[in-house]
Every structure is written in structure tokens, then in C-alpha cells.
Write a sequence for this structure.
């Protein structure tokens, strides 16, 4: 079963292909995506990578969490389920 990872503090110019290249040495990357702002299309500085197995995901977390990518210390951990929003946002 695959494991989904959260990757944070990414450089703004980072692409899904860059994520695949970064995580590839640790095992098979099922998917990689960069989250973009809906209005501007600009990267929000984080993304998700789905690794083929728990073992490859753990290896990637151990090696990459806190590592330097283009001058930025990235965060890599297991993705959590998104909590549903209840009603309108306070603003």
C-alpha cells in the first residue's frame, strides 16, 4: 500500500518533476504534486508525494526531513487527512 507524504517549505519555483527527482532515489514515486493558489496559480510552497510503500516513505522522511533544498530547510512527514471545514471562514 502506498504512503502519502507532505513536503513543506519548498522553493517557489519547484515543480512536480523536481519532487519526483528528489524522492526517486528512495523508491518508486507513485505521484507528486505541488499545491497552487487557486486565484494566482502560484505555488503555495508545499506539495505531496505518494511513495510506493511504507518502507520507501520512511527512508525518504529520514533522509529528507530538514534537508536543504535550494537554500531552504524542507519539512517531510506523513500526510494527515484534511479536516472538513465547518461553515464560512472568519476573516
Amino acid at each position: 500500500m502506498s504512503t502519502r507524504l507532505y513536503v513543506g517549505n519548498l522553493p517557489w519555483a519547484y515543480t512536480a518533476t523536481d519532487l519526483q527527482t528528489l524522492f526517486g532515489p528512495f523508491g518508486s514515486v507513485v505521484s507528486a504534486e505541488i499545491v497552487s493558489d487557486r486565484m494566482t496559480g502560484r505555488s503555495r510552497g508545499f506539495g505531496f508525494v505518494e511513495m510506493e510503500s511504507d518502507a520507501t516513505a520512511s527512508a525518504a522522511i529520514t533522509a529528507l526531513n530538514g534537508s536543504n533544498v535550494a537554500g531552504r530547510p524542507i519539512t517531510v512527514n506523513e500526510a494527515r487527512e484534511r479536516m472538513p471545514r465547518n461553515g464560512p471562514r472568519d476573516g
